[in-house]
Amino acid sequence: MLYLKNLTYHPAASATAILKAVSLEFAPQKLGLVIGPSGSGKSTLLEILAGLAHKTSGEILWRDQVLTPSHLQQLGGLVFQFPERHFCGGTILEELRLGHPELRSEQMQQALSEVGLDHLPLQTAPQSLSGGQQRRLSLAVQLIRQPHLLLLDEPMAGLDWSMRRQLVNLLAKLKQHWSLLVVSHDAGELLAIADYCWTLNHGILQRVDPQGLAAQLQPPQSVLECL
Ligand SMILES: Nc1ncnc2c1ncn2[C@@H]1O[C@H](COP(=O)(O)OP(=O)(O)OP(=O)(O)O)[C@@H](O)[C@H]1O
């Protein structure tokens, strides 16, 4: 179980706190969704959970252990928004091996199989993959590290509806083995697979019921009849 207790982030350069007494609980093998508008603090929350930014106050615990940024770097695997822009390898093999030169081919095949890319030759250039396949590869890059918590920043951004649907199915499958925390400005189709949902506004996190929110966002029947 991951616990955030009264987490606050107030960098010196900001007049107000970016995250304000954020608390949440999150069980393993679940998908948590944080929905908030641009500038609400979503990416900052992920950066803190990935150990890349340091909280100002509050606590982060895994079960009863207090987590430091270096624990968080071990525990979490962060997939940035538009992760394909950060590919450095010339091939899938190079991309997976970056930082892991010792990686065995079975480990690579296992990670690729988790994301449905095991049919592709390892010499394939990441740039030649479709947008959806590139997102899958960026997930495989994190799975190689066997993180406890996958942190995904706007995973659907820039994908067409069919790739979005495939990615939702993949995330639903991944949560059988991993815990996933997804942040997005748009609840969209992720609500259907979310076990927990929060809204984030001006750094204030509030728990909401994913089913209740999905029902609220459903277009009224009269609109559906016009489509
Ligand atoms: N170290 C910092 N110093 C000053 N301001 C910061 C710092 N880090 C983040 N901010 C500000 O905090 C606010 C929240 O940023 P953040 O990137 O977390 O928002 P977001 O919800 O992810 O937005 P978007 O959806 O547009 O990516 C922004 O106004 C940003 O400029």
UniProtKB/TrEMBL annotation:
Keyword presence, Transport: yes
GO terms for MF: ATP binding; ATP hydrolysis activity; ATPase-coupled transmembrane transporter activity
Organism, as annotated: Neosynechococcus sphagnicola sy1
Entries under Gene3D superfamilies matching the protein: P-loop containing nucleotide triphosphate hydrolases
Entry keyword Transferase: no
Cellular component annotations (GO), alphabetically ordered: ATP-binding cassette (ABC) transporter complex
Segments crossing the lipid bilayer: none
InterPro entries, A to Z: AAA+_ATPase (IPR003593), ABC_transporter-like_ATP-bd (IPR003439), ABC_transporter-like_CS (IPR017871), ABC_transpr_CbiO/EcfA_su (IPR015856), ECF_ABC_transporter_ATP-bd (IPR050095), P-loop_NTPase (IPR027417)
All residue ranges annotated as the ABC transporter domain in the record: 2-227
Family in the record: Belongs to the ABC transporter superfamily.
Protein name according to UniProt: Lytic murein transglycosylase
Record keywords: ATP-binding, Nucleotide-binding, Transport
